[in-house]
Q: What sequence folds into this?
């Protein structure tokens, strides 16, 4: 088991190194950083000074190594557009995105699993069929359209919820949170549902399909034949057996919740990292883009690592295989 | 009058609506099981053996359903009980052992957990007491070092050991009736005898009645007190093991015995019953066995109701073997 964990961590490092290479290549070779930073009015002396200062005269490998060293320290250079360290800008924006992603991830998982189990147990019920039909809409409508629809219905027509922004935020140390104010919480509702809706329907349909499969198994019949309560049969015996594939997909989906936040943040003008990235794209703010790329890949890798470890927690059969393999 | 039998099934009919009309996998089946008695139920695949067992414990898969007949357990009627009431009886009054021990246990839960949850669902005991009982139950079915293996998972056991665990689970809340649905079919021949004798010993000790569904005549002759023979959803013969095995009355039973290999007989070729069991949607009129029966006469093909009333009430046949001349 420990050997397995070490191997997984090692794999994760390799993935991060490769992503780092891409981010570095982007930083170094997309456009000319000297051009970008110095602008029109420059002298040859300026160029040489900056080239030396940035280390651009050094061999490729040395530059890559330096980039990685800096990245590990959280130093991604200076934003071309804002002239401030990228790490500082991202640290400022990250709480908004993380709070949004957490809420919509929880929404997707809890509601998705709940509805999935419900529609599997009441397979032919009217409510289940209605939910399944509606879920097709969730799968097929693009995120930005859902967001705009929500804004139209709940903000414009009904005037119940704010249509953009985070509402009032409270500063807790370095973290600005929207969880502590009423307007902050209200502002979270529409964006997080918009962001999580696709993932929710996906998880729901997956849980339903897996549940239907598991409910046919002998051990479920045997659990029933032993007179266990329906709730124990459905949740303790059946749901647990559906979790391995569900966790795999959910893990990937959580990663894409953070990645897809770009669209939702644009629609709702949510001051998060995604919006920062979109603005960076428009101004070809390479350091910000490179940092964003690294940040997202670290999250994906971390989530995948957690998913791999969760398999062990759920399925005892893997623990033995892991010991020998 | 005697005390009522442990289990009494009267004129049980199970129907499944299909696209091609309604079929009856169980048709007018009646039998009784006394406390401590082992009733073997034999027949080909699809004869309605398992369906009868599932109907008794109330686990018919929809759309199969009981349409008529009565089932009494200890004198209480248990068919058409409300779901919650039936659930309380499952495990506590009726235990069930399934065919395949590899798939009957939940792979993700430790054995001890599966045992204690069953005990806690039915008996008013504390968690600590339930755990003690779980260990005792495992010891009783012959799991060595039960106390240490209570946290083990099913995949850490062999097939035979798992079937022992399944039996421990089925008996853990001390039911008065056990339905064993082909408990040895999926096992190695070498452990089959161990499992049947274990089942027999435990039920004898506790006075548990057993409905033993199988198509293994060897298991029947070693284990059962009485045998019920089913064919195409109907009961064709019901009698003591000795009677049915040595002097079968119904031509089908006779054919079944003839097609069982016996080392003592030293046969060259096994007997075959010509043809095959009719599909349920396509039963012949009259006796379902008549098209394959060498003794069949005109009366057998007529639409007359057959009952277990010939051969001293043992067989449902107009012309039972041994009475042809009469």
A:
């Amino acid at each position: 088991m420990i050997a397995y964990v070490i191997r997984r961590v090692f794999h994760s490092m390799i993935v991060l190194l490769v992503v780092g290479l891409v981010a570095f290549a982007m930083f170094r070779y997309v456009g000319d950083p000297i051009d970008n930073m110095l602008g029109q009015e420059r002298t040859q002396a300026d160029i040489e000074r900056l080239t030396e200062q940035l280390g651009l005269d050094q061999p490729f490998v040395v530059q890559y190594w330096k980039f990685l060293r800096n990245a590990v320290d959280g130093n991604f250079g200076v934003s071309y557009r804002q002239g401030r360290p990228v790490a500082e800008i991202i640290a400022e924006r990250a709480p908004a995105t993380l709070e949004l992603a957490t809420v919509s991830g929880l929404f997707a998982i809890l509601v998705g699993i709940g509805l999935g189990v419900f529609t599997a147990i009441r397979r032919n019920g009217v409510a289940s069929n209605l939910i399944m039909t509606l879920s097709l809409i969730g799968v097929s409508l693009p995120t930005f359209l859902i967001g705009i629809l929500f804004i139209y219905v709940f903000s414009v027509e009904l005037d119940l919820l704010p249509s953009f922004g985070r509402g009032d935020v409270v500063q807790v140390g370095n973290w600005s949170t929207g969880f502590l104010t009423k307007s902050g919480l209200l502002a979270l509702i529409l964006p997080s549902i918009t962001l999580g809706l696709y993932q929710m329907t996906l998880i729901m349909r997956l849980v339903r399909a897996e549940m239907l499969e598991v409910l046919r198994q002998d051990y479920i019949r045997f659990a029933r034949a032993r007179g266990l309560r329906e709730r124990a049969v459905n949740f303790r015996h059946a749901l647990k057996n559906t979790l391995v594939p569900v966790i795999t997909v959910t893990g990937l989906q959580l990663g894409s919740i953070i990645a897809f936040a770009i669209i939702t943040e644009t629609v709702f003008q949510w001051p998060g990292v995604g919006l920062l990235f979109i603005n960076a794209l428009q101004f070809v703010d390479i350091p910000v883009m490179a940092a964003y790329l690294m940040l997202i890949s670290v999250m994906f890798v971390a989530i995948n690592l957690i998913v791999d470890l969760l398999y062990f927690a759920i399925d005892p059969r893997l623990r033995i295989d892991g010991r020998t393999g | 009058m005697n005390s009522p039998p442990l289990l009494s099934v009267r004129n049980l009919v199970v129907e499944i609506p299909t696209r091609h009309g309604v079929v009856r996998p169980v048709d007018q089946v009646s039998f009784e099981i006394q406390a401590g008695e082992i009733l073997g139920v034999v027949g080909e695949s699809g004869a309605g053996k398992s369906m009868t067992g599932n109907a008794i414990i109330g686990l018919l898969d929809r759309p199969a359903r009981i349409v008529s007949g009565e089932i009494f357990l200890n004198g209480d009627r248990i068919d058409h009980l409300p779901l919650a009431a039936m659930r309380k009886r499952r495990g506590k009054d009726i235990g069930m052992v399934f065919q395949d021990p590899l798939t009957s246990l939940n792979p993700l839960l430790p054995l001890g957990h599966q045992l204690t949850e069953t005990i806690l669902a039915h008996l008013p005991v504390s968690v600590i007491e339930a755990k003690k009982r779980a260990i005792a139950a495992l010891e009783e079915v012959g799991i060595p070092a039960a106390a240490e293996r209570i946290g083990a998972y099913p995949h850490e056991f062999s097939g035979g050991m798992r079937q022992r665990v399944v039996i421990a689970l089925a008996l853990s809340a001390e039911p008065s009736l056990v339905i064993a649905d082909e408990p040895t079919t999926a096992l190695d021949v070498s452990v089959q005898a161990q499992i049947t004798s274990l089942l027999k010993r435990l039920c004898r000790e506790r006075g548990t009645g057993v409905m033993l569904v199988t198509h293994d005549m060897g298991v029947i002759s070693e284990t059962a007190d009485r045998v019920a023979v089913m064919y195409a959803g109907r009961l064709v013969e019901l009698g003591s093991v000795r009677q049915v095995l040595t002097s079968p009355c119904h031509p089908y039973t006779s054919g079944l015995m003839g097609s069982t290999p016996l080392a003592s007989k030293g046969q060259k070729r096994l007997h075959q019953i010509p043809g095959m069991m009719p599909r349920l949607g396509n039963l012949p009129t009259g006796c379902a066995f008549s098209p394959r029966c060498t003794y069949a006469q005109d009366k057998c093909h007529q639409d007359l109701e057959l009952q277990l009333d010939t051969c001293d009430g043992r067989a449902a046949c107009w012309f039972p073997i041994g009475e042809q001349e009469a």
Remarks:
- The radius of gyration of chain B is 21 Å.
- Chain B touches chain A at residues 57, 59, 87-92, 95-96, 98, 100, 103-110, 117-118, 121-122, 153, 155-156, 166, 169-170, 172-173 (CB under 8 Å).
